[in-house]
């Protein structure tokens, strides 16, 4: 018998082109059907197209236009909206506060989350109870957190305000810029600690006991064991959380800010995302708001790409 | 029941890697064929092409007279047992076995009867309503076998089915697989990297290397007449000794010792000697320097050197050995291979007149 | 080997107190009268006004137009939470299945199309999203509230990771057993994914229930107000009043946080597993 290579018919060739595996197939074993995969991804694709791509493209387009506040048409203004946003002192101040806010909230909630996770991992007795208590706040919505925070810092009834008064600090949250900033940061950190705690704790518990035991034999000091063994093993979790926390501070705190500054942003600190909302919905400056949206998009996209890169490089215990 | 025919089968991956090339093999109805070779030799790929889990890049695969190249796995009338069993974790043992039959619209009472029969054969009755995770490794293996049996396929395909079991269980299951296959008379293709498993199970062995067939033959035939140094080193434990030797003036010489008469002009050859074919001599023969002795209880394997070439010898257990031994070997037990290609040479070695005298 | 570590416990107790006390205060204070709170501050012990306050919050028609009760808001939040969670599980599971288990030419571009959505949270494209919805006449509808929130690939990402961890041999065994794409999906993959589905459902329920900005923009008709929207309203009503309805605000906050809190604590293990496994 001679070799009989199967000669592909034109239809087969078309089919092969159509079903050619992607460069990095998710699995070795896959179905090979021309139509079925489309049916499965169709709902998601449709939703993404209508509710993600359409508005995103619109945001970019309208950032180049100046819209008449009364709705009579729009004029193309090129990069004016961007220039205006970036050159305004108000925008710069808010951007400055946003950066400070994001940095402080991220650092504090990561640090406290890690501290509590390490301690919860170390104790045997009552670990479950601590865990439950520390996790609970995670489920509470930002505006509810904002409401509770507002009460805590209320000028008349707030326990935090009373405590500050004992030290001679008269807090005037909602009126004094700096006091409000302190309150916002405290509340935002409070809300985020549980999330970081959960991830750090599960990261710690994923450290194999053999590694812990090896470290126990090799190093006498607990601090040294933590610094040289545990911390490097937690680094991937830490990087992941870093980006999540920055994103949280930038966007998910909207509800907290909206409730705590009570629509009176005049002399209160706000973040960039809140300004996008104010300019767009309260100020009716659609072009300017869109330009600010696009700037934020770029920042977040850069952050997320950085995150993906880091996750890809997660070699140890990933 | 069916014969399987592979004609010039090849597999090229999108990147251009040639996993299998030009494999032709004819498997008779009811035959137990073992595909054996080191990892990466293409044995699993070949099996998966027969199963329909991998596209066939070249050649044809025929099962029971039907060319199956373009058929879905389910249409090929085969059943497969996987290395990690691939049991459906959410289904009971009974459901695991009957799901494939249900998908084939086989009547309910027929399914029940087949599952019953398979459970009896494999002694799975007590576990029929358990989930796989409540079973031991050996029991899971049995369920995977049961799932294959109830299908009553034209051929069984086994992909290293025993690799995840411990050594003792592996020996037991090996016997069971063989008994079952003989009883059912179903053609079987079995992939393993374990040469012992291959020797004990196979009607015929197919030794693969680098995607190509090195040798096909009955286990003892392959053992006694390996077609190449690769096969010689792979089949048998301890591995066959392979030494650099020379043919000089019609004699085979190793370490300056004349091992016998051989035809052919002067050249370097690779000489193969099985460890158990070497005997102790009082004097003369090959000078052997002992390095390490492995005591196995029933016997011992002695590792050492002839000149600078490593050699191992199987000897009966017994008295303490001196550091230097003298080894002899019957000329019929010598294997000659081409020093460069590794292929078996046609010549055989004969007793030298001098030795005979 | 383990010793009692008083210092560790001290830190944990302080941390737990810092996190939990405000929640307890909110709950306890909601059972006191507004004047009491106004005079004495927040409480850490229960009061006697609880029943009356909660009854009032749940049944009294409030808001600017007086058409929405607390009970109605609870219902709307439930619809949003459940609808969102269900939609998320169904849509993202189907998409992940299509992406992981099929060989097709456009798998990579589609993968990127879907996963780019992870880049940009709703907040940064809120304005145009609102405009799109108003063009689609979807303001003040439940579907308009729920479906645009599905346009992020988080769920798809979770399921994709999970499917990739399912052994290949399972699909191969199923194919030899004569299963096509639909039968494999329903017969093997869905039952296998149950814990994952439950975890994602819980996470997404909490996420949906807690939505604030989107419902605030999408619902101008008070009949569609969720609890989060209600909180905003009650605070707006306060401005200028002599003694704010602290107790009612707290009661509303308690109503708004109880279901997600309950779900998370009840399914703690599943919830944590679902959450942390997604970062792999």
TrEMBL record, chain A:
<keyword id="KW-0997">Cell inner membrane</keyword>
<dbReference type="GO" id="GO:0055085">
    <property type="term" value="P:transmembrane transport"/>
</dbReference>
<feature type="transmembrane region" description="Helical">
    <location>
        <begin position="130"/>
        <end position="153"/>
    </location>
</feature>
<dbReference type="InterPro" id="IPR050809">
    <property type="entry name" value="UgpAE/MalFG_permease"/>
</dbReference>
<feature type="transmembrane region" description="Helical">
    <location>
        <begin position="94"/>
        <end position="118"/>
    </location>
</feature>
<feature type="transmembrane region" description="Helical">
    <location>
        <begin position="291"/>
        <end position="311"/>
    </location>
</feature>
<protein>
    <recommendedName>
        <fullName>sn-glycerol-3-phosphate transport system permease protein UgpA</fullName>
    </recommendedName>
</protein>
<feature type="transmembrane region" description="Helical">
    <location>
        <begin position="231"/>
        <end position="251"/>
    </location>
</feature>
<dbReference type="Pfam" id="PF00528">
    <property type="entry name" value="BPD_transp_1"/>
</dbReference>
<keyword id="KW-0813">Transport</keyword>
<dbReference type="InterPro" id="IPR000515">
    <property type="entry name" value="MetI-like"/>
</dbReference>
<keyword id="KW-0812">Transmembrane</keyword>
<feature type="transmembrane region" description="Helical">
    <location>
        <begin position="35"/>
        <end position="54"/>
    </location>
</feature>
<keyword id="KW-0472">Membrane</keyword>
<comment type="subunit">
    <text>The complex is composed of two ATP-binding proteins (UgpC), two transmembrane proteins (UgpA and UgpE) and a solute-binding protein (UgpB).</text>
</comment>
UniProtKB/TrEMBL annotation, chain B:
<keyword id="KW-1003">Cell membrane</keyword>
<dbReference type="InterPro" id="IPR027417">
    <property type="entry name" value="P-loop_NTPase"/>
</dbReference>
<feature type="domain" description="ABC transporter">
    <location>
        <begin position="4"/>
        <end position="235"/>
    </location>
</feature>
<dbReference type="InterPro" id="IPR003593">
    <property type="entry name" value="AAA+_ATPase"/>
</dbReference>
<dbReference type="GO" id="GO:0140359">
    <property type="term" value="F:ABC-type transporter activity"/>
</dbReference>
<dbReference type="GO" id="GO:0016887">
    <property type="term" value="F:ATP hydrolysis activity"/>
</dbReference>
<keyword id="KW-0547">Nucleotide-binding</keyword>
<dbReference type="GO" id="GO:0001407">
    <property type="term" value="P:glycerophosphodiester transmembrane transport"/>
</dbReference>
<keyword id="KW-0472">Membrane</keyword>
<protein>
    <submittedName>
        <fullName>Carbohydrate ABC transporter ATP-binding protein, CUT1 family</fullName>
    </submittedName>
</protein>
<dbReference type="GO" id="GO:0005524">
    <property type="term" value="F:ATP binding"/>
</dbReference>
<keyword id="KW-0762">Sugar transport</keyword>
<dbReference type="InterPro" id="IPR015855">
    <property type="entry name" value="ABC_transpr_MalK-like"/>
</dbReference>
<dbReference type="GO" id="GO:0015794">
    <property type="term" value="P:glycerol-3-phosphate transmembrane transport"/>
</dbReference>
<keyword id="KW-0997">Cell inner membrane</keyword>
UniProtKB/TrEMBL annotation, chain C:
<comment type="similarity">
    <text>Belongs to the binding-protein-dependent transport system permease family.</text>
</comment>
<keyword id="KW-1003">Cell membrane</keyword>
<feature type="domain" description="ABC transmembrane type-1">
    <location>
        <begin position="74"/>
        <end position="267"/>
    </location>
</feature>
<keyword id="KW-0472">Membrane</keyword>
<dbReference type="InterPro" id="IPR000515">
    <property type="entry name" value="MetI-like"/>
</dbReference>
<dbReference type="GO" id="GO:0005886">
    <property type="term" value="C:plasma membrane"/>
</dbReference>
<feature type="transmembrane region" description="Helical">
    <location>
        <begin position="249"/>
        <end position="272"/>
    </location>
</feature>
<feature type="transmembrane region" description="Helical">
    <location>
        <begin position="142"/>
        <end position="163"/>
    </location>
</feature>
<keyword id="KW-0997">Cell inner membrane</keyword>
<feature type="transmembrane region" description="Helical">
    <location>
        <begin position="79"/>
        <end position="99"/>
    </location>
</feature>
<feature type="transmembrane region" description="Helical">
    <location>
        <begin position="106"/>
        <end position="122"/>
    </location>
</feature>
<comment type="function">
    <text>Part of the ABC transporter complex UgpBAEC involved in sn-glycerol-3-phosphate (G3P) import. Probably responsible for the translocation of the substrate across the membrane.</text>
</comment>
<dbReference type="Pfam" id="PF00528">
    <property type="entry name" value="BPD_transp_1"/>
</dbReference>
<keyword id="KW-1133">Transmembrane helix</keyword>
<protein>
    <recommendedName>
        <fullName>sn-glycerol-3-phosphate transport system permease protein UgpE</fullName>
    </recommendedName>
</protein>
